[in-house]
Specification:
7 helices; alpha/beta; UDP N-Acetylglucosamine Acyltransferase, domain 1; ten-stranded parallel beta sheet; 301 residues; 34% strand; elongated; Spore Coat Polysaccharide Biosynthesis Protein SpsA, Chain A
Length: 301
Amino acid sequence: MLDYVLEQFRPLPETYKPEFVLIVGPNQLEQVQEYMEIMHPDKSVHFVVQEAMRGQSDAMYIARDYLVGPMLMTFSDTLIETNFDVLADPKIDGAAWVKPVPDPRRFGVAEVDKQDWVNHLVEKPEEMSNNLALVGFYYFKRGEDLIAAIQDQMDRKIMLKGEYFLADAINILLEKGTKIRPSRVETWLDAGTPQSLLETNHYLLEHGHDNSKIAEKREGVSIIPPVFIHPTAVVENSVIGPYVSLDADCEVRNVILKNTIVEKGTRIQQMMLEDSLLGRNVQLQGQAARLNLGDSSWALE
C-alpha cells in the first residue's frame, strides 16, 4: 500500500520537488523507516509518530514543523488517480478531491456552490441530494493556514468521540474565506478493510501491475491471470490466480491460490487458499482455508 500511495504523486509537475512526511503509529516507525530506506532511498522523507490516536487533525498538528508552504495530504488507505491540473489554478487556496457516489450517506461529502467552490464539508449526510464524497486527498496552498485552523479547532474542542477530524478544521478555513475547489476523480480505491484491500488488488492487477506473462515461464506452475509474482518468489507445483500477489522471498509449494495477497518471506505448503491476506514471514501448511494473518503467524497441520 505504501508503494501505491507514493505512486499517486508521480504525476506532479516537474517544478515540484516533494518532501514526504509519513505519520505513523507507535508500533510502525521501525518497519516503515526501514522499508523507505531500502525501497525509496531517492525520496526526502520525514517521520512523525502519533503516540495517541486522537484523530486526523491531531496527526497534522504533530507534524506541523514540516507542513510549511504548499502541501498535499492523503490517507494511507486511500488510492486515487489524478493529474493535479487543479494546482495550476491561481485563484485557489486549496482543493478537495471528490467522487460522485450513488449513496453518499456513509461518507463525508463536499457541499459546492454554483461557482463550483466548496462551501462546507458534511460528515455522513442524512440526505442524498449531495453525492460528492470526499476521498481523503487534499491540497493546501499554505500548510500554516491549515495548522492555524487546527489550533482553533482544538481551542474550541471541536471533536467527536475523543478525536479531532480534519473536516472540522477545513470548515474553519472555509468560514474564514479560504477558496477550496473540488477536484473530481473517477478512480477511488479503498484499502481500509480486508475485503476492500482485495478489491483494490483486483483493480491494480488489471491496470498495469500484472506480470503473468513473465510468471508463466515457471516450470510446473499454472498461472491464471492477472497475478503479480515477485522475481525472487519460489513457486513449485502450484496453481496461482486469478488475483494473486506474491511478494519477495515467498515460498509456495503444492498450493492453489486464488484472490490472495501474500507478503514478503511467507512460506505455504500443501494448501488451497482463497480470499486471504497473509503478512510477512507467515508459515502455513494444511487444508483449504480463508485466512487473514499478521506477520510471523503460523498454522501447521
